[in-house]
Design a protein that fits this description.
Elements: H1 2-10, E1 14-18, H2 21-26, E2 37-41, H3 46-50, H4 56-59, E3 69-72, H5 81-85, E4 91-94, E5 97-100, H6 109-113, E6 119-122, H7 126-139
Antiparallel strand pairs: 1-2, 3-6, 4-5
Length: 143
């Protein structure tokens, strides 16, 4: 599973976990309220194309995981590769350096493509990871 996730990231896919009632329909499974989808979204369709145009009521449901921090370091040369791959347009180049705005969903695409390794994604407090795991376990049976 870890190898699959790593390969998906290397291929430019965005890892996503969530509950989408349409998934229960197209997968023909039920009940949909207990279905949690793990997806690797591609840049040709899915969230990459839809999210910026969705009504904020729906688009706002795709959020950054609690505790995730995405930061630009001093190594940034302002090449703009990160800006090109950001599917929510959260990155601007200002004064020769990338600036990541509040719209960031923490997908990590910018980290993957930065040729300088100047963008980091971290979860400094492990309690945030544990809290997320508990929320998922409350929603679905993960055993």
């Amino acid at each position: 599973a870890h190898r699959h996730v790593r390969r998906a990231g290397e291929a430019g896919l965005v890892h996503l976990i969530g509950r989408n009632k349409l998934d229960a329909v197209w997968l023909d499974v039920g009940p949909g309220e207990r279905l949690l989808t793990v997806c690797n979204c591609c840049p040709c369709c899915c969230l990459w194309k839809m999210l910026p145009d969705l009504d904020p009521l729906f688009g706002g449901k795709v959020t950054k995981m609690e505790g995730v921090e995405v930061q630009v370091t001093q190594g940034c040369v302002g090449c703009g590769r990160c800006q090109e791959v950001c599917f929510v347009n959260a990155i601007q180049i200002e004064d020769g350096s990338a600036e990541i705005g509040d719209e960031c969903r923490g997908c990590g695409r910018c980290v993957e493509v930065c040729p300088e390794g100047a963008i980091t994604i971290t979860v400094p407090d492990l309690a945030d990871i544990e809290s997320t795991i508990r929320r998922i376990e409350d929603a679905v049976d993960v055993t």
